[in-house]
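Record 1 of the preview.
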Amino acid sequence: MKYKPRLIWSGSIASGLLLIILLALNGFLSNPLLWTDKFALLPFVLLIFMGLHVLFGMYVFFDESKLCRVDFFIWRSCIAIADIQSVVYQSSLIFGGPNKTVSVFDAKGKKVFMESMPFGKEMQKDLIDKLIRLNPSIRLNEDAEALLRENK
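->
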């Protein structure tokens, strides 16, 4: 199963980056000397990479044996589902708020996480539910249990 960022989140980020890229292109086209300046090109290339990352380079997936999160296309963090000890649903930010993160921990302290902002609460709930089905010995904190009870 593969969880990709919601279109409303990735689409809005990508459209904002697209606008910035178009403005930068306008600057490059109006001043051709900028194409030869590597320091002027670097932010432009980084913006393109970040836009592609938001749309295609970040996702969470699992099968019967492991849970993985991929960032920046190649940076992979994986945990064996049989080794998962706990799932914690907690505030993403120090100050709290509506954005929460699902953090999955194994016995060695390795962590795979899924934030609510890009992925959404329903995907987080679905992930926890499927992990519990694959490994019933997983412990949940109170907030994770409350999330699973929502809308049942």
